[in-house]
Amino acid sequence: MEGERRASRARSSDLPAGGDGAESPGGSVPLPAGSCSPALLPADVLDLDEDEDDLEVFSKDASLMDINSFSPMMPTSPLSMINQIKFEDESDLKDLFITVDEPESHVTTIETFITYRIITKTSRGEFDSSEFEVRRRYQDFLWLKGKLEEAHPTLIIPPLPEKFIVKGMVERFNDDFIETRRKALHTFLNRIADHPTLTFNEDFKVFLTAEAGELSSHKKQGPGLLSRVGQTVRAMASSLRGVKNRPEDFMEMNNFIEIFSQKINLIDKISQRIYKEEREYFDEMKEYGPIYVLWSASEEDLVDTLKGIASCIDNCCKATEKRMSGLSEVLLPVVHEYVLYSEMLMDVMKRRDQIQAELDSKVEALTYKKADADLLTEEIGKLEDKVECANNALKADWERWKQNMKNDIKSAFTDMAEENIHYYEQCLATWESFLTSQTDLQLDEDSEDKL
Amino acid sequence: MEQTPPDPERQVQPASLEPLSGPDDDLEAAVSKEADGAQREGSGTDTMTENNFFLKKIEISVSEAEKRTGRNAVNMQETYTAYLVETRSAERADSQSVLTDSLWRRYSEFELLRNYLLVCYPHIVVPPLPEKRAEFVWHKLSADNMDPDFVERRRIGLENFLLRVASHPVLCRDKIFYLFLTQEGNWKETVNETGFQLKADSRLKALNATFRVKNPDKRFTELKHYSDELQSVISHLLRVRARVADRLYGVYKVHGNYGRVFSEWSAIEKEMGDGLQSAGHHMDVYASSIDDILEDEEHYADQLKEYLFYAEALRAVCRKHELMQYDLETAAQDLASKKQQCEELATGTVRTFSLKGMTTKLFGQEAPEQREARIKVLEEQIGEGEQQLKSKNLEGREFVKNAWADIERFKEQKNRDLKEALISYAVMQISMCRKGIQVWTNAKECFSKM
Fold first, then answer.
1. DSSP annotation string for B352-368
2. Model pTM greater than 0.80?
3. Which residue of chain A comes nearest to B446, CA vs CA?
4. Which residue among A80, A102, A294, A423 is least crowded, i.e. fewest CB within 10 A of its CB?
């Protein structure tokens, strides 16, 4: 399907069916095997045949069950259930396709900014139409993220690309920067679309469909910026208390996040460095080949050999370029996204801890203030529910996230290895053909001498 | 191949050797390969089999290098490297070779030998020595003369030099060369006693000739031009190659970092752990593979460097020609003007300005006896001059003939050697690619099992 291909252009935007939007929320409806979306697979691997899709499906079934039992916060919409049933027989359950493209510069008297075109295609009933086209700027994305975090404090919200690049980029509207950002924004929206809970978020829908004016008026509703800042400050303060009573599972999770964050950051740096070194290698190689051609001008007997070498070097140059672009299109964005994810995870942990801290402080209060015992007990009851919901939501989402991460990382590195293999194969081919031509010539010369 | 009739003084006259044989003898000097794997390019062996006129089969090798300290000419402590030069005679029947001579030489003695050859055989393209100081280095490679890798490459270069000399149809017969291989003590004194330094043309004289010569042989002018181009292009090539090597090193080594990080990461991953760990191992293998690759490439660079230095040797031959030609032109001009003077004196006409002519005009004609005397002197000088001119002409033509013969020999050698070097470069690249495919295929397998 055309739309499907476009929506899943960026590798990392495709997530395993654990995050399939059309799943059944509340109840545990066991999905028949073979009906799940192969949305796990990266864009160009979608060409694989059905069999492979089915294999992926089996491994995802288990996690689906988990989500169904642990996510009481998933909105139950009869319409979405109908959609889900309708798609059971099809190989792809994805019903929301989003693309981000066409960055455009807008200049006003106050500022200059970039907007991106967002095209949404959907078959969902709750959407008024089946196709939407809107323009959004980075600020709008920030707003959306904020709203999602607010609504689901312990879900793992996908990360946004950075506001600014700290080093290297002076020009905010550098072409590479814009393109990198565009791809990351595309991934961001698609990750939300694939998330079992977030995909039904109202603000998300507004973001995708509202005209500019509508969006700004919608934005004005809800808690303002100041209150959100206040929340953050309180969150920071109380989260420390929440750490003390953090359950075992979450201690483990936190430990993982800390180490993962360290490692992924290093991998990000290493990968960026590799790209830089490859680029510099490419630049030098470009200069190298032509010298052999220059030399051939003064050597009548070595013209073929020298020119042959020059052409091999040029071919290797082209192959390097391809390798570099593979790196920048696949590995770098994925690794970088997970760097940002690791920061998100830490925020999520903090928020969870803060929710727990609220409960703990009330419990503490209860032991000391016997007077308000009844009121406190009631409050504690509510908070205990809140904590349980938060914990369960996080646990489920955590499993889903880990699964995604494994697949994305695996896929990205496998791809990098593939690019390298291809690079060396191309270089090998060109040098071997040169060698053959030289030894053939040698044989011809020898036989001529003999004659 | 024609050669200058050998100067009897310079001929090889070792006691144990058979008398000089003609060019048709089948003679060879083989390359001795070193235990540590350093190998000369194969062309060396082929060249020598075809062209060597040495009296008996010998093998020359520079087999060791040793750091020494000693006192130099101004009595200061210095550290230098000495090289062991071994000569073996190989028996035809079996391949057993007997060590006949073994002595230590330092770089400066090689230089002395070469300078001697340059002066005494100006019509020969004398093989160059390996570089004195490391140049065109990519940054990981040391530019230190005492660095073991540099010393090793220099050892190979020195061996190569000796083999080239030994396989040269003319140079191999030189006595000083023979003594270099066989007489450790006093060799320097022996060389200096030949007085060759006196025969050397002064730089100034040579420079002067280059600018003022009117009719050099066109072929030499072209050759000079060619050698300039060769030097320029090879220098450029070596420079860029060094930069490329640098960059390639960077690419490979950075991948090594993945190894460490994957390993640390694998500790927290249940499913991915094994895959990450083993992939990391392959990244380490990949990163360390570049060291050998670049070491091989350094050998290629050395092969090119030899021809870079050969360009200078070519220019030296051209300069000698220019000098001889200039000398000839000057002598001819001199002779012509003397003839003219003579004629003027004889006929009494003054066609050209001369001091004598002026003074004659001012102070009156000289006496007929004086005039006769002067004419006689001039005629003598003219006679001498004509003789000299004739011999100079002959010398010049001989030089051109012999030089050009050696240049043709050189050209063929160069084409063979360079072609082989370029092909071996391609072979190196192929090996590098194959290694790359292997490593990344392994890594891919690990990744896909995560």
1. S--HHHHHHHHH-PPPH
2. no
3. A414
4. A102
